[in-house]
Amino acid sequence: MNKKKGRKSILEGTGFLLMITIALFIVMYVIGCLLFADKGFAKPQVFINLLISNAGLIVIAAGMTVIMITGGIDISVGSVVAVVCMMLAWMMERKDVGAIPATLIVLGFGLVFGLFQGFLVSYLKIQPFIVTLAGMFFARGLTAMISQDMISIKNEMFLSWAKYKIVIPLFGRVNRRGEVMYPYIYPSVVIAFLVLVIIFLMLKYTKFGRSLYAVGGNEQSALMMGLNVRRTKLYAYVLNGLLASLGGFLFCLNTCAGFVEQAKGLEMDAISSAVIGGTLLTGGVGNVFGSLFGVLIKGTIETFITFQGTLSSWWVRIAIAALLAFFIILQSIFASLKEKRK
Amino acid sequence: MKKRLLSIMLVAAMVGVMVMGCSQKADNGDSGDASDSGDSDLITVGYAQVGAESDWRTANTESFKSTFTKENGYELIFDDAQQKQENQIKAIRSFIQQGVDYIVVAPVVETGWETVLEEAKAEGIPVILSDRQMDVSDESLYECWVGGNFIKEGEDGGHWLEDYLKEKGMDGEEINMVTLQGTIGASAQVGRTEGFANVLAENDNWNMLELQTGEFTQAKGQEVMESFLKKYDDIDVVIAENDNMAFGAIDAIKAAGKTCGPDGDITIISFDAVKAAFDAMIAGDLNCAVECNPLHGPRVAEIIQKLEAGEEVDKIQYVDEELFDTSMDLEEIVKTRAY
């Protein structure tokens, strides 16, 4: 009974937690702009680069948020990204598959991968951690089976997608050659934002979205309310598999290469972004826009380190660790405070 | 209500501490830069390094850090990519936005750089590659590449063997040799195998019994050498394409009851010449080590000075590499070695 009360009150506090995440991001960014003003931190392109470099991660973190809302976890996504990049590169370069069919095939692969993992989790009731651990090993092994060499993507259509600059005709500035440069984004950023909006609307307004929260909040009561818990979970994993492969596709647009070691540890970046964004590992609470800000905070710390120029890049990890600890403590303080008030 | 107020204050305090922590951290570095920002004649160089996975890599990083100093007229922005290509792409994008004058990259992998190099080109920032090549369709995306000449290293090893055998009066005899190759496909393996094969072709009395990969590791090198020793009883020369495999081979030879080194039955030639290889030569186990020079910093600085003066530079720039054997005063040389 206690547990249930705690959950409910956290739900009320999540708005506030999200506000803190957003405020923290803004404060960090403003500090960056002030500190590195002479190096051009305040340029719009610096902010846009956060989105360009992390477009894949944004989509993957959105999928992770959905899974975490159901109380599950998926640590296979990094390996799925690697296998997606490798499949794309291998199909286009070694087998002359066109860019469009190759993309559809990898998205289909993600769907089937998610379906399989989801079946094991929801119908056979195996711990999601173990299922996706196996999935992680399998996908990484599959990547190496396809090819142990690095494959560079030279498919013209794929490269034209990757290089297609969408220029924003605002805030132009002159580069060293005297040409005017405008900020630009790549199509991957547009896709990532579309996905975010769709997942946000789905979570908030559809029956499936609300069922995800119900299942994650308390599986027993969800069952008693007549929700099909198993099917809801299955669909969540299928959706996550699709988003993981889409994230892999966006990741591949950024790197244009397939190799075995790619995207190692990306699943942990996705999980930490979701947690910083206010998603609870215990389920029932979460918001995709929180995860977006989790990704942006990580990106901002990285940008800090490169602009600073002399600090070891491993400080990013330490800063993320501090933030994670901070947000977890905050979440538990909120839970206990509200409980006492009642 | 009081408690709620308290919690909000607590949160505010924690955020405040975090923010101060962040700003202080950045401040330390920035105060150094701020005092120099008046010197606008400093050349800013961004170096996107692979990581810190080996002694060789660390020596390479140190070489850049000690070359591109403020005293020499440079400001170095260094980024450790932790072996991740996506981190290097992020670092290069950040260098571009900071408006650095030159970008140096030691690519983690050979592929997938076109988009970000085109962004650098659009900004007019020259890119110099260090150590590993890039597989890009348009060579104008980078100015030049700086690194070791693996083929020449292989040839140097071969020529050393020619001289050594002549000195020992064995140049007419049948010489049986085996090779412990590196990871197949790695540029060091391909170049060193090819370079040695060039010299092998000139010597009819040299007989290459077998080439097999030891994957650049000591354990695998030892394993392969053990099988070689079982298969062939009269191996005269072992070529190990890096030091670690040579150490493995030395262990295998000793375990089989044979001897190696200048006074032993088997001559061993190794590549890379790390500090431990000098120790092995001093101990009399290893005959010769061909250097793979990690000190790219000075050569890159030279190229940047040429580009600053508006000169053309060659697309491929090899660093100088030496060869060490037991006839030299190794104890003195090892004191001057950076790695």
State the separation between the terminal residues of chain B, measured CA to CA: 64 Å
Give me the number of helical elements of chain A: 13
- Structural class call of chain B reads alpha/beta
The CATH topology of the largest domain in chain B is Rossmann fold
CATH architectural group of chain A: Orthogonal Bundle
Q: Which chain pair has the greatest contact?
A: A-B, 67 and 58 residues
Work out the oligomeric state of the chains in this entry.
heterodimer
Structure summary, number of beta strands of chain A = 6
Structural class of chain A: mainly alpha
Beta-strand percentage range of chain B: 15-25%
Largest sheet of chain B: 6 strands, parallel
Strand order of the largest sheet of chain B: 2-1-3-4-5-11
Question: What is this structure's SSE topology?
Answer:
The complex is a heterodimer of chains A (342) and B (339).
Chain A: H1 2-35, H2 44-69, H3 77-94, H4 99-122, H5 128-146, E1 151-152, H6 156-163, E2 166-167, E3 173-174, E4 180-181, E5 184-185, H7 187-205, H8 207-217, H9 219-224, H10 229-255, E6 257-258, H11 266-276, H12 288-308, H13 315-341
Antiparallel strand pairs in A: 1-6, 2-5, 3-4
Helix pairs in contact in A: 1-12, 1-13, 2-7, 2-10, 2-11, 2-12, 3-4, 3-5, 3-10, 4-5, 4-10, 7-8, 8-10, 11-12, 12-13
Chain B: H1 2-36, E1 43-49, H2 55-67, E2 74-80, H3 85-98, E3 102-105, H4 114-123, E4 127-130, E5 144-147, H5 150-167, E6 175-181, H6 187-202, E7 206-213, H7 218-231, E8 237-240, H8 243-255, E9 267-272, H9 275-282, E10 288-291, H10 297-308, E11 316-318, E12 323-325, H11 330-336
Parallel strand pairs in B: 1-2, 1-3, 3-4, 4-5, 5-11, 6-7, 6-8, 8-9, 9-10
Antiparallel strand pairs in B: 10-12
Helix pairs in contact in B: 3-4, 5-6, 7-8
Domain Periplasmic binding protein (chain B): 52-290
Family (chain B): Belongs to the bacterial solute-binding protein 2 family.
Protein name (chain B): ABC transporter substrate-binding protein
